[in-house]
Input
Amino acid sequence: MEYSGRCHCGAVTFTFQLPNIDAGLQCNCSICIRKNAIMSAHYVEPDQFNLLSGKDALTNYQWGDKDVNHYFCKHCGIYPFHDTTYDPGKYRINLGCVEGLSPRSLKLTQFDGRNQL
Ligand SMILES: [Zn+2]
Output
C-alpha cells in the first residue's frame, strides 16, 4: 500500500510503500521512551520511500555508538522516521506522522531496547 506522511508543521513530507499496516512497535530504550512514538513494525526499503520535501528541514540526532540517524524536523521538532548508518535509506516510520492511521488502535509490540542496545 502507498502511504503518505508528514511532520507537524508540514515542512517534511514523504510517501512510502508497505504492506497493510496493522501493527506498530514501541521501544523502551532511553530515546524511544522519551519520544513515546509508535513506529512501523517493519523498515521501508530504500526504493519504497520517497522524500517529497524537507531535506533541508531535517536534522539528525545521534547518540551512544551513533549507529542510528534519529531525524527530526528543526521547525516543529517532530521525529518522522529514522534509519541506521549501516543500512542508510532503510527507514522505520513514526506512524503518528502517517495520514489515515490511528497508531494507538494498532496491535503494538514492545521491543526491549533498553536491555538490548
Ligand atoms: Zn516540521
Q: What stands out?
A: The chain has one domain: 2-115. Residues 2-115 form a domain with the Metal Binding Protein, Guanine Nucleotide Exchange Factor; Chain A fold (CATH 2.170.150.70). Residues 7-9, 11-12, 57, 73, 75-76, 78 surround zinc ion (CB under 6 Å). Residues 75 and 116 are 32 Å apart (CA to CA).
